[in-house]
Amino acid sequence: PNFLRLDVDFERQLAAELGQNNNVTNAAKPVIYQTPGLLARADGNNVDMDQEIGQMNKNALLQQAYLQLLGTKLNQMRLAIEGT
Predict the structure, then answer these.
(1) Residues 6+ apart with CB under 8 A from 43
(2) Closest to 28 (Cα-Cα) out of 36, 39, 18
(3) Pairwise CA distance, residues 20 & 43, whole Å
(4) Is 10 helix (H, G, I), strand (E, B) or coil?
(5) Which residue has the higher pLDDT, 17 or 80?
(6) Which of 5, 9, 41, 69 could form a disulfide with 35, with the two C-beta atoms 3.0–4.6 Å apart?
């Protein structure tokens, strides 16, 4: 009851940090905000399970894609080092 969904825009924060002369610092302070547009139920909770599952699936697909890209880059580097 009375749980309000909060979010952090990691992509925007990372882009902002990397955009500062490619100098990433440990001083980054993420902005936490209440997700707009969600309706609260009678118990005050505004979490939508369908939206949460959709977001989880999106994150899983992005992780798989990034891991494949990283694997490809590492294989290219390995081939360049080995010379085969």
Answers:
(1) 1, 2
(2) 18
(3) 43
(4) helix
(5) 80
(6) 5
